[in-house]
Amino acid sequence: MAGRILAVSDIHGLYDEFCALLDLAGYRPEEDRLVLLGDYVDRGPRSREVVAMVRELSRRGAVVLRGNHDDMFVKWLLEGDDAFWRSGGRTTVESYLAGVWDGRDREAARRLILERHSEHVEFLRSLPYFYETEQHIFVHAGINPLYEDWKQTPLREMLWIRETFYNRPVRTGKVVVFGHTPCVFFHGRPDVWFGGDKIGVDGGAAFGHQLNGLAVTGAGYETYAVKVFTRLNG
Ligand SMILES: [Mn+2]
To answer: 151: domain CATH number?
Structure first.
């Protein structure tokens, strides 16, 4: 593949911004490899559309990784784990069950989503945790540098890790491209953060900042950003 790798993270139900970003970056499925770093659902209003689109992109060859929010959504649906509801899950349920749910009965919501959207559930539960190329490791939150071999990082940490990852060199010989921790945390701006052996991509779109794209080209890196224009609640 002669084209670029285009990485996007933490879309969080912001369907319109995601479409605008692919447009802005000039994404061409035949030439570019799209690598999505997770967190398709929660907080933004159109989680269902984002998952449908991401599933379609995956069919056409995009790499679609798992984020902690996608994982919580699946764990609620399949195991009844309530952590999902403490992390912005309501907007996801409302997106999936617009007009058919009373807004109160969570068990009913769970049943309805499992019945009506089993293909989404199947897709989300099957998402991989990382993607590796010759020069990069793509992962939602990061890897744990304390392990000799980064692949020993517990899967849960690949979705949730913070300081242990970003406060230490990763010593893998590759650059880790990750989302999960908004770039404002690293350099006070939502733009892509270049931190030596790490590149942070999460523009904090779910908090009203921007959706970032990172293109890995033959010559280096290019970045793209779409300011959030959807109205977010809370
Ligand atoms: Mn996350």
So the answer is: 3.60.21.10
The pTM assigned to this predicted structure is 0.97
Question: Is 234 inside a domain boundary?
Answer: no
Q: What is the whole-number distance in angstroms between the Cα of residue 41 and the centre of ligand 1?
A: 10
| In the predicted structure, residue 43 carries a pLDDT above the cut 80 | yes
Residue 150 included in any domain: yes
Is residue 233 in some structural domain? no
Q: For residue 196, is pLDDT > 80?
A: yes
Contact criterion met (CB below 8 Å) for 183 and 204: yes
How far apart CA 48 and CA 32 sit, in angstroms, is: 25
Phi, psi (deg, nearest 5) at residue 71:
-65, -40
2 CA distance to ligand 1 middle (Å): 30
| Domains: count for the chain | 1
Compute the distance from residue 61 Cα to the ligand 1 centre, in Å: 23
State the distance from the centre of ligand 1 to the C-alpha of 231, rounded, in angstroms.
Answer: 20
Give SS3 for 141: coil
Instruction: Categorize the per-residue pLDDT at 3 as very low, low, confident or very high, splitting at 50, 70 and 90.
Output: confident
Supply the range of the domain harboring residue 73: 5-227
* Separation of alpha carbons 47 and 104, rounded Å: 19
**Ligand 1 mean position to 66 CA, how many Å?**
9
Residues 7-27 have pLDDT tens digits of 999 999 999 999 999 999 999
Ligand 1 center–CA 10 separation, angstroms: 7
Q: Does 232 reside within a domain?
A: no
